[in-house]
């Protein structure tokens, strides 16, 4: 995908998150999500951290060459990561989100920060590199990592929000391309999976069925592809 396409996809991903949360009252913002222990406001705070990281990263150009791309980046974060580390981060997010006097306070900051991150992405050097999480990436690959995380978490936000819209198609395709890269060229996703089912199963949000395992063959052992 071109740089313009990656920027458009990120804008669509972040706009999708905003659309989900913008009209929610404080009660709805305290609905559970697919992320264990996190309410909607908690998960939005986690996403806010990504948007803030994007602003810092895009303002911090790095010398190339890149040492990772938008797919191999995720291999630094194995699905079976440290339980203690994951628990600490989850607890940090919960306590930080709870520091707001109302859950809607997180929405207000997200609504200011996400468009700023998208704007910073649009004016970044398309040929440049940036550094984040200990890696050097091309700007377009960095945008793809942000988009993939936003789409996965969009799906995490909505199980108890029946009126929430689905994520946008361009952004979904970036996340699907990431999963395809992690799955490798030697395996094909089951034909009866649509894109959103693929993302939910590839990230362990939905378990593989016996039929899925037959269709995937030995590739079933690689799931989840991303945590």
From TrEMBL:
One of its GO terms (molecular function) is metal ion binding. It comes from the Bacteria. It comes from Micromonospora rifamycinica. InterPro entries: DinB/YfiT-like, MDMPI_metal-binding. This is TIGR03083 family protein. Residues 11-157 form the Mycothiol-dependent maleylpyruvate isomerase metal-binding domain. SUPFAM superfamilies: DinB/YfiT-like putative metalloenzymes.
């Amino acid at each position: 995908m071109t740089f313009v396409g990656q920027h458009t996809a990120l804008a669509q991903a972040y706009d999708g998150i905003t659309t989900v949360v913008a009209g929610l009252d404080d009660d709805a913002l305290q609905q559970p999500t697919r992320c264990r222990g996190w309410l909607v406001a908690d998960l939005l705070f986690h996403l806010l951290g990504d948007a803030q990281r994007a602003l810092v990263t895009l303002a911090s150009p790095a010398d190339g060459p890149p040492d990772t791309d938008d797919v191999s980046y995720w291999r630094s974060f194995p699905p079976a990561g440290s339980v203690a580390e994951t628990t600490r981060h989850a607890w940090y997010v919960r306590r930080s989100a709870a520091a707001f006097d109302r859950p809607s306070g997180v929405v207000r900051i997200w609504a200011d920060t996400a468009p700023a991150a998208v704007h910073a992405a649009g004016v970044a050097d398309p040929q440049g590199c940036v550094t984040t999480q200990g890696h050097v990436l091309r700007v377009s690959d960095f945008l793809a990592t942000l988009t993939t995380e936003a789409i996965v978490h969009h799906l995490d936000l909505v199980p108890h929000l029946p009126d929430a819209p689905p994520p946008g198609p361009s952004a979904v395709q970036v996340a699907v391309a990431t999963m395809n890269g992690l799955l490798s060229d030697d395996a094909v996703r089951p034909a009866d999976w649509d894109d959103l089912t693929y993302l939910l199963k590839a990230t362990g949000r939905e378990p593989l069925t016996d039929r899925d395992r037959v269709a995937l063959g030995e590739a079933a052992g690689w799931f989840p592809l991303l945590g």
